[in-house]
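Q: Could you fold this chain for me?
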Amino acid sequence: MDLGLNGKIALVAAASRGLGRAVAEELAGEGTSLVVCSRQTETINRTANEIAKATGADVLAVAADVSRADDVARLVQSGLERFGRIDILVTNAGGPPAGQFESLTREQWEAATRLTLYSALELTRQVLPGMKERRWGRILNITSIAVKQPVENLMLSNSLRAAVTGFARTLANEIATYNITVNNILPGYTRTERVEELARMMAEKERISAADFTARWEGEIPMRRLGEPREFAALAAFLVSERASYITGTSIPVDGGWIRSLL
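A: Sure. Below is the predicted structure, expressed as structure tokens.
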């Protein structure tokens, strides 16, 4: 299937590892040029070079913290200076810390809000005018299965990713006539560094091995395994493609059947 992505320009946030990197690699393989970011200069430069070498794509690396509005503005401006436009935006950020409500401070809530909610808002704010002017665009937010079925001990993520979902669903209707789609993609338990770190942390609390804790997750998943980043990235590439032009306002899980709800 030709996704119509050849020649498009995509900005993928938090792309040095995990799901962000998998999406960037998939888009590069489909012929897009990339703007990628993470907080560490050395790490994102290495990632960009590896993707460019593997795919032949033109990849611009920018060190930026997406929880900071000034960094977001600089990131987008760097992409515009290099490529002249941004056709596709994939918002993404590292997950906020785990914890129950009474263990979380006001400062942690504020930091998590900047990281999870405001980063998506600011990235969208920066790229949307150009998309409207060209009457074409794709905005895809990487959120979580927690927006459909809250995950135990993830109070911050459960709350703030739900806020991103409400923002995206409302924005989708506001800009649909400009041929701009807005969708959310919901990763389930996927074999990334973040999930492995979470498994280790939770296992330590229960004084069991990380492998035993991961096995518990696998037992909750009908497919009885964690997902692979490339499986997630395949859907992401489709949702930002020309072929997905009539899909907007949706939240689609990639979870091996973990979510039990009908919708």
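A (continued): Strands lie at 9-12, 33-38, 59-63, 88-91, 137-142, 180-187, 251-254.
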